[in-house]
Automatic annotation (TrEMBL):
<feature type="domain" description="Rhodanese">
    <location>
        <begin position="27"/>
        <end position="117"/>
    </location>
</feature>
<dbReference type="InterPro" id="IPR036873">
    <property type="entry name" value="Rhodanese-like_dom_sf"/>
</dbReference>
<dbReference type="InterPro" id="IPR001763">
    <property type="entry name" value="Rhodanese-like_dom"/>
</dbReference>
<dbReference type="InterPro" id="IPR050229">
    <property type="entry name" value="GlpE_sulfurtransferase"/>
</dbReference>
<protein>
    <submittedName>
        <fullName>Rhodanese-like domain-containing protein</fullName>
    </submittedName>
</protein>
<dbReference type="Pfam" id="PF00581">
    <property type="entry name" value="Rhodanese"/>
</dbReference>
Length: 127
């Protein structure tokens, strides 16, 4: 039986919030941000340096160029969207080390980080 401690430890092992991502990038950790939304949403606004890999089209061919030695951070719009969860599941099934960005792009913006459409704290991917 899964204990509460096991549940929360597992949750933290597979999720990151915006501050976690920011700190990891500042520390030089190798993260690759994956925007799992539709291409149109990605074109409108995303996190700088993120790659557009829509969850609907994720398969071996569409992910072949992604590094297996980086942590992939899947994200979508926010809590009203589950594209990041669908993307994280597909990427994990394809053998990638994956985390999901809690709150997605919405909470990234709320925490004051830059996007391709808004000013904020600058971020650079260590990919």
């Amino acid at each position: 039986m899964l204990t509460q401690q096991d549940f929360y430890a597992a949750k933290l092992a597979y999720e990151m919030d915006a501050a976690d991502v920011w700190s990891a990038l500042q520390a030089g950790e190798r993260l690759l941000l994956i925007d799992a939304r539709a291409p149109e949403a990605y074109q409108q606004e995303t996190i700088p340096g993120a790659l557009s890999v829509p969850h609907r089209s994720m398969d071996e061919a569409s992910t072949a160029q992604l590094p297996k030695d980086a942590v992939l951070v899947s994200f979508c719009d926010g809590i009203g969207c589950n594209a990041s969860t669908k993307g994280a599941l597909k990427l994990a099934r394809l053998g990638f080390n994956v985390r999901e960005l809690q709150g997605g792009l919405d909470w990234w913006i709320r925490d004051g980080y830059a996007t391709t459409a808004r000013a904020g704290a600058a971020v650079s991917c260590n990919c």
